[in-house]
Specification:
Length: 179
Amino acid sequence: MSVRPIVLLGDPRLRLKGLPVDSFGKFLHGLLDDMTDTMRAAPGVGLAAPQVGEALQACVIEVRDTLYELINPRIVRAAGNDRDLEGCLSLPGYYAYVTRSEKVWVVAQNRNGRKIKVAGSGLLGRALQHELDHLDGKLFIDYLGSMDELIPVGSDEDGDDDGDAEHPANTREAAKVLA
Ligand code: ZN
């Protein structure tokens, strides 16, 4: 297991659509283990295979001490709307408000190819949508009307240290959705 370099915005590999995984052996298991190490070292709550340069339909998410390894995942149902701050390990230093579904239901395979189902709202729901977007070559900035909507980490706007009554915990929350 090892930490791999994370592919950053501007690298064309981030825009490749991941190929379906059809082999559930050593290569996949090594990739998943490395992705988990890389996600934890960042730290972030999720990481998709294209972010370590592998154009495959595989991602990892860790929320509230539960690790999800999702192979060939797809959203089968979505409900509600939720607007919150979100960041990406491939675009360090910036956050933005992104509207997502409030809850999603995902069908995927585990590392051994067995079918699994994951439903998530809140942080998990947002991470699921963010990672599945990566597998389609899509980034959270694609939802923005303009790059001016990006909020630099540590700016007044992210409620870092000024006790902003409207967004008192934005920095902390945003740190949780780096994926
Ligand atoms: Zn991301």
